[in-house]
Amino acid sequence: xxxxxPIFRRKAAxxxxxxxxxxxxxxxxxHLCDDAQLVIEKVCAELxxxxxxxxxxxxxxxxxxxWEQIPVVLVDGEQHTFWRVNEDRLRRALxx
Length: 96
What we know:
By secondary structure, the protein is of the alpha+beta class. About 35% of the residues lie in helices and about 20% in strands. It has three helices and four strands, in the order βαβαββα. The protein has helices at about 30-45, 60-65, 85-95; strands at about 20-25, 50-55, 70-75, 80. It is globular, with a radius of gyration of 16 Å.
C-alpha cells in the first residue's frame, strides 16, 4: 500500500470522541492549571471523552519537556495547547 497513489488509499476512520484521550499536565498550586481542568472536565463530560491528569513535579520527562508551558493539554498524546484552554477549540479537536 505504501507505493499506492494517495488517491486510492483509504482514509482512517474518524475517531469518535469516546475513543479519544485528553491529558492535562499540571502542577500543584497553579491557577492556570485549575482553570484548564475546569474546561477539560466540562468538555469531556459533555462528549463522554476520558481524561487524565499528570503532575509535572512527579515526572522528570514531563518536567523537562513542558515546564515552561504548563498547563499543557494533550489530545491522544499530541500537544493541543498550553497556558489557556479554549473550550470551543478543544471541543472541535475532539469531534472532527
